[in-house]
Amino acid sequence: MMKENGDIKDDNSTTYDHVIKYTGIFGGVQGITMLMGLVRNKLVALLLGTQGAALINIFNSALKFANDSTNFGVPFSAVKHIAEIHEGGDEEQLKKYACIIRTWTLFTGLMGMLIMISLSHAISYWTFENYDNTFNFILLAPAITCLSISGGELAILKGTKHLKKVALAFVFSSITALLLCIPIYYYIGLKGVVLSLLLTNAAVMLIQLYYSTKVLPWRVSMLSRNTYLEGMPMLRLGLGYIIAGVFGQGAEYIIRVLILRWGNLEDVGLYHSGYIMSVTYASMVFIAIETDYFPRLSAIKDNVKKQNATVNQQIEVCSLLISPFLILFVAAMPLIVIILFSSEFSAAVPMAICASFYMFFKAHTLPAAYLSLAHGDSKMFMLTELIYAIFIALAIPLAYRYWGLIGAGFALSTSGLLDTLIIHITYRQRYHFRFSTRLLHFYVLQFLLLAFTVWTAIQPDSWHKFCIEGIAFCISISMSIHILRRETSLLSKIYERIKARFTRK
Q1: Can you tell me the distance from the alpha carbon of 418 to that of 409, in angstroms, rounded to the nearest whole number?
Q2: What is the 3-state secondary structure (H, E, C) of 196-255?
Q3: How far apart are CA 279 and CA 361, in angstroms?
Q4: CA-only gyration radius of the chain, Å
Q5: H or E element: which one contains 278?
Q6: What 8-state DSSP symbol labels residue 434?
Q7: Which whole number is the average pLDDT over 172-188?
Q8: Closest alpha carbon to 116 in 57, 190, 64
Q9: pTM recorded for the entire structure
């Protein structure tokens, strides 16, 4: 059935073609977003250097930690609740619940801002061991309100399946962020880092509001007791999400602070750039997980057979797409760091190479990890996030202290393996999830190819090295294409379109 908004076909299909379609759509959107991020990171590298990259990362980590600690998980849990109302087709109830979401996000956003302002003196000392950045954290505080509101509006768009508007909001947000940052970094330099973060988050909020208010008009009831009470069921899952967010963002914040304490500001910038290259850019493959996959999984959570089929298909698609990408990324890493950043960041290359296994394990973990959220099981979600957060908060800084950035990279990969084992063992018991071994041979071979490429990449440069890496990539992508051709009609459709275009000419 086609929705009136025309944004998406309401289809709960769990076929390969469906998964590939939305991974492609939002992967393309993420590609544009990533391109804007590439340009922005390049400008940071050229105009601000490693210190600028470090400051942006530290302030961003503090901002996200504060937001995740105070938003009660409303932007995430709201998707599940509003999607259920949307499926029922009750327009009035939909408007009412949108009001509840917006009231809560505005309330939590203002609360988070006030908390950060009141603790700005202490946060400055905890982070930098001085009080010089107290005013910077006060100036940054309104961005928490912007983040909270943006999350609520995005939840409304996702829950009502206006995925085209979600995609447009992502694209225009990334372009706007780039255009705002360029003059600030050029004219103000390091002193403009906080201002750029504040203005960027405000612009993103306005863009999200523009698209979401076209779907459901803006309305809040800040003084209505009933509005808050009716939103309480949404907070049950949200409570688990907020605690998990505190664990996750808290761990990331601790990692950067300890690297700053045991190393210097430049090392924080190098760790951040290595993380971006090995994790952030590779994660574009997973963008469809939250946007399309999670609502689809929530709708079939009570059917174990469909649940397992859906999760395993998503794992298979993620693995098929990410494996060749990682091998190519590892092989080209020395060139990539110069293109994306500058030669000043070359010291981050070994760390990024050693951390590449993290995303390979993530492909086998993330689709299954959403089961606890789809089932509304906040306790299990909190438990797995807590174990993971404790491990990375201890392992990565300690590995950095004893083995430098290379140690931090291996610790990040190890955390991915640990997370995979925890998720698959516990969720097998909890939700009767069964990992499909249908493509086990593919996973094993791709892992061996990646490991071989990583080992080759850390060897001295030679023509033999580049030939071996090229062969590994060709084998990897050939395997993925073969399985995609066997399981989907995507490649044949692309071929037919190309053939038809040339025939017309």
Answers
A1: 15
A2: HHHHHHHHHHHHHHHHHHHHCCCCCCCCCHHHHHHCHHHHHHHHHHHHHHHHHHHHHHHH
A3: 11
A4: 23
A5: none
A6: -
A7: 88
A8: 64
A9: 0.71
What is the C-alpha to C-alpha distance for residues 291 and 306, in angstroms, rounded to an integer?
Answer: 19
Transcribe 144-190 into DSSP letters: HHHHHHHHHHHHHHHHTT-HHHHHHHHHHHHHHHHHHHHHHHHHHGG
Write down the domain spans for the chain: 48-238, 263-505
User: What is the rounded distance in angstroms from the CA atom of residue 80 to the CA atom of residue 83?
Assistant: 5
Contact between 186 and 220 under an 8 Å Cβ cutoff? The reply is no
User: Which residue's entry shows tokens 């190519």?
Assistant: 328
Cα distances from 402 to residues 276, 406, 407, in angstroms, run: 22, 10, 7
pLDDT band at 264 (very low <50, low <70, confident <90, very high): confident
Joined tokens for residue 353: 């190479």
Amino acid identity, residue 354? Answer: C
Beta strands in 21-97 (DSSP E): none
pLDDT of residue 52 exceeding 70: yes
Q: What single-letter DSSP state applies at residue 280? A: I
The reported pLDDT for the residue numbered 275 is 87
Alpha carbon separation from 29 to 164, 166, 270, 284, 291 (Å, rounded): 10, 10, 27, 9, 12
Q: Which long-range contacts (CB under 8 A, 24 or more apart) does 24-29 make?
A: 25/163, 25/167, 25/288, 26/163, 26/167, 26/287, 26/288, 26/291, 26/292, 27/284, 27/285, 27/287, 27/288, 27/321, 29/167, 29/170, 29/171, 29/287
Query: DSSP assignment, residue 120?
Result: H
CA angle 122, 126, 128 (to 5 degrees): 110
User: Is 2 in a helix, a strand, or coil?
Assistant: strand
Two tokens, residue 488: 């989907």
Start-end of H helices in 276-377: 287-288, 294-299, 304-331, 333-340, 349-354, 357-369, 371-374
Q: What is the pLDDT of residues 106-165, one digit of tens each?
A: 999 999 999 999 999 999 988 888 888 999 999 999 999 999 999 999 989 888 888 778
Other beta carbons within 10 Å of 455:
11
Contacts 24+ apart (CB under 8 A), 379-383: 379/240, 380/426, 380/427, 380/430, 381/240, 381/241, 381/244, 382/240, 382/243, 382/244, 382/247, 383/426
pLDDT tens profile 58-116: 898 889 888 888 888 787 778 877 887 887 777 888 888 899 999 999 999 999 999 99
What is the C-alpha separation between 241 and 264, in angstroms, rounded?
32
CB 8 within 8 A of CB 161: yes
CB distance 371 to 427 below 8 Å: yes
